[in-house]
């Protein structure tokens, strides 16, 4: 099984058309994790990477709620996930909710808050990869329920959930369809479909 998972990791290294930073090539979103708690110092490193991300006007609108497996708060996060994500995410050693502040300190709409949260999560993902930690970002979360369960203040919005754990785990713990998904070839649209020089190309 360990050899099989190593082969999956090798198979998930991006087949890029142009050479990029190795950690970016190696990053993917696993659904299996080793049964090992995230080391406190390494968790601090993840949040430090987020802390030093770029943000519009240095507003740093990101916030996180996290819980380790076995904690009541962990089960509350699981309960807020979509049925699909409940099939695998409870096996992660740590779950997070990613949140952003919708307004500036003056009460005006921060149009770029979600953009900044994305930058912050990108930085966290690269730092995680450096530490052999996989992050699986999940859009499938009932944000209204999560905001109520965790008493998120007005003006803050739960955007996504994240499963966090060291790469590895047991593939056979996943339902068969998810096992197949873990081993499927990765696909990306070509640059020509999203990067346009001088004029939009439809």
From TrEMBL:
<dbReference type="InterPro" id="IPR000415">
    <property type="entry name" value="Nitroreductase-like"/>
</dbReference>
<feature type="domain" description="Nitroreductase">
    <location>
        <begin position="83"/>
        <end position="166"/>
    </location>
</feature>
<dbReference type="GO" id="GO:0016491">
    <property type="term" value="F:oxidoreductase activity"/>
</dbReference>
<feature type="domain" description="Nitroreductase">
    <location>
        <begin position="24"/>
        <end position="79"/>
    </location>
</feature>
<dbReference type="Pfam" id="PF00881">
    <property type="entry name" value="Nitroreductase"/>
</dbReference>
<comment type="similarity">
    <text>Belongs to the nitroreductase family.</text>
</comment>
<keyword id="KW-0560">Oxidoreductase</keyword>
<dbReference type="InterPro" id="IPR029479">
    <property type="entry name" value="Nitroreductase"/>
</dbReference>
<protein>
    <submittedName>
        <fullName>Nitroreductase</fullName>
    </submittedName>
</protein>
């Amino acid at each position: 099984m360990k050899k099989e998972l190593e082969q999956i990791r090798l198979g998930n290294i991006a087949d890029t058309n142009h050479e990029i930073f190795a950690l970016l090539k190696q990053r993917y979103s696993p659904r299996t994790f080793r049964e090992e708690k995230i080391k406190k110092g390494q968790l601090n490193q993840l949040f430090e990477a987020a802390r030093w991300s770029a943000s519009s006007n240095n507003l740093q609108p990101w916030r996180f709620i996290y819980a380790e497996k076995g904690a009541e708060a962990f089960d509350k996060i699981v309960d807020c996930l979509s049925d699909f994500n409940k099939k695998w995410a409870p096996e992660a050693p740590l779950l997070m909710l990613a949140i952003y502040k919708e307004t500036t300190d003056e009460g005006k709409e921060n149009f770029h808050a979600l953009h900044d949260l994305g930058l912050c999560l990108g930085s966290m993902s690269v730092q995680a990869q450096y530490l052999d930690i996989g992050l699986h970002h999940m859009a499938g979360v009932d944000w209204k329920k999560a905001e109520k369960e965790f008493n998120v203040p007005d003006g803050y919005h739960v955007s996504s959930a994240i499963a966090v754990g060291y790469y590895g785990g047991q593939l056979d713990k996943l339902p068969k369809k998810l096992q197949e998904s873990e081993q499927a070839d990765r696909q990306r649209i070509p640059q020509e479909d999203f990067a346009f020089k001088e004029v939009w190309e439809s």
